[in-house]
Amino acid sequence: MERVLAVLFLLAAHAASAAAGVTSPYRRSLQMLPVMPLDADVFRQPPGHNAPEQVHITQGDLTGRAMTVSWVTPEHPGSNVVRYGLAADNLNLTAEGTVQRYTWGGTYQSPYIHHATLTGLDHATVYHYAVGYGYTVRSFSFKTPPKPGPDAPIKFGLIGDLGQTFHSNDTVAHYEANGGDAVLFIGDLCYADNHPGHDNRRWDTWARFVERSVAYQPWIWTAGNHEIDYAPEIGETVPFKPFTHRYPTPFRASNSTGHLWYSVKMASAHVIMLSSYSAYGKYTPQWTWLQDELRRVDRKTTPWLIVCVHSPWYNTNDYHYMEGETMRVQFERWLVDAKADLVLAGHVHSYERTHRVSNVAYDIANGKATPQFNASAPVYVNIGDGGNTEGLANSFRSPQPDYSAFREASYGHATLDIKNRTHAYYEWHRNQDGVKVVADKAWFTNRYYMPTHTN
Ligand SMILES: [Fe+2]
């Protein structure tokens, strides 16, 4: 009888822990992953003399009536103009861009980097555009996001820590198959700094690799630690030099003074990008901007408040544990007061989703340092599982803390499908043997329109 009771007790204990959170048993190889070789097909340069390559777009203003097109030309500056219009055979509008190069480590010279912003666009409209001239014109298209409004739908892809391994390629392929409208990229793009001398050819290969998605839909950039590229040993002492030359952000449109922290409004979402690797202490430019920015959020128009930051504030993996803590202490209270819906982070190379928790009661003297369930708090998603060369973070803390809803050390991406002002459907897609698998899913309810609902 005692044994039966003991078994029942163990089963009950197991059920209680399962309700608290799931640690997925699925396991991938934990080894470092091979980077795709320089001659991989996804890195191939397009044919034609001085053909434009590495084409990518990002939103060019606050609300989606402008799009910034970036591309490089390898041999000489070439044309600096984007031709665009409503039909592929009638590109009747033009935008003049800028062109620049940079050097790296005394040995590398970048190709000619162009940026041009197409303005005066209509919302929710397909535009065709072309770069290059003569025999080397390359043509693409994109759709602008819907006009900001409470029920305007949009489906975001959520990708972080992508790199350029074979798993990275799977992640992009699976995201393409899922068909999002735009990507919120949570930092750590190409991992050039893992190569000797921060081999900047890896910035070029990565941009060729992701062109197949980012030339056709805006990716919104958050900077990670692999964008810092601080390398005094080779004379490179200006942080973020390759990233800022290659990846513009519309920071001025949201009254920011820094390339790395800014916001965009897309459909029913107000998305804030923060920089884990720029000053955020009190009185700093990022701190001041965020304080002002949260006052500018209009939930009646854009009910979904999403914050992207590279280093996670809640993460139950030993890998990078507590690295985001100082920023959490600085900003969490603001996000809880603002009833933010979702905080996206990367950096830790695994996947995790939390319940709605906050840890804002601590004041050094009262000892209240345990995260609490809080309907006003955001869900924290860690999506640092894009597939980079450093391999997986598989050292989860045990027992699984109550605030962790689901965690798994695998590669993948997520999608956030905002349906209307009250509901968004979220899925995490594991890269499993080349076939995308939905391994975690949830309906999120909006914190402004359904503030007491716990999901
Ligand atoms: Fe990182």
UniProtKB/TrEMBL annotation:
**Enzyme class label:** hydrolase
- Which Gene Ontology biological process is one annotated for this entry? cellular response to phosphate starvation
Entry's Gene Ontology cellular component terms: plant-type cell wall
Give yes or no: UniProt keyword Lyase: no
Please report a single Pfam family linked to this protein: Metallophos_C
**Keywords in alphabetical order:** Glycoprotein, Hydrolase, Iron, Metal-binding, Signal, Zinc
For this protein, the record's SUPFAM superfamilies field holds: Metallo-dependent phosphatases, Purple acid phosphatase, N-terminal domain
Q: What's the superkingdom here? A: Eukaryota
Question: Which GO terms label this protein's molecular function in UniProt?
Answer: acid phosphatase activity; metal ion binding
Enzyme Commission numbers on file: 3.1.3.2
Q: Which residues form the signal peptide?
A: 1-20
Q: Taking every annotated instance into account, which residue ranges of this chain make up the domain Fibronectin type-III?
A: 51-154
Q: Which reaction does it catalyse?
A: a phosphate monoester + H2O = an alcohol + phosphate
**Similarity comment:** Belongs to the metallophosphoesterase superfamily. Purple acid phosphatase family.
Q: Which named protein is this?
A: Purple acid phosphatase
Query: Source species, please?
Result: Triticum aestivum (Wheat)
